[in-house]
């Protein structure tokens, strides 16, 4: 318990605070001298702070980053996240004309499906069918999606209310996205790739469908609580959704924690 209270010593916290501080400094410099050329960098660091911090924390707990080549993870981050955003953005606009109406409850099913497309394409090659590799790829794809989505919200906010408010949007989304996009997709991958590793092939089972449905429902509940016209205190239920989302992901990935390395016993002369 004492170690949990010393979170400031962990690498994930240092990464998160450094990236958030750099984003804030870039925004402050923009406001001070009017140099808007650095705004994309400010938005990137702000949008990436939370997701990258969570990635560091998960890797330190599970070492899954070593299960897939770095270039493959980078490709999934850049292109998997981009393809997911392309598909999600298209079908969101097509199927959800009113972002503040009940149709917003469809968004979880749309965006989780979009994020699964590049992951399924990679899985069909048969090269990365282990649970550790699947979770690493899923988190990379979700990170790319979440960062680019957060940057789009920041650009909209800077046009409406200015750079400082855009920075606040990024800060709040940096706190939220690690417990939303990343863990929802991570949960699906933990269950699906766990089944596929055991079976040695891609197969759709009740557990895989159930994990996808759970992630989609949590995603839709989160968006509905934040956008629908509901009483103010009820909106705080999104914190319950975030906590439940992370708990399910953590539970699904407990077996990925590497066994401790035992020190050899000292030899007796």
TrEMBL record:
Residues annotated as transmembrane: 12-30, 42-59, 71-91, 103-124, 136-155, 175-195, 202-221, 233-249
Keyword terms, alphabetized: Membrane, Transmembrane, Transmembrane helix
Keyword Membrane annotated: yes
Classification via InterPro entries: PrsW
Presence of the UniProt keyword Transmembrane in the record: yes
Gene Ontology MF terms in the entry: peptidase activity
Protein name per UniProt: PrsW family intramembrane metalloprotease
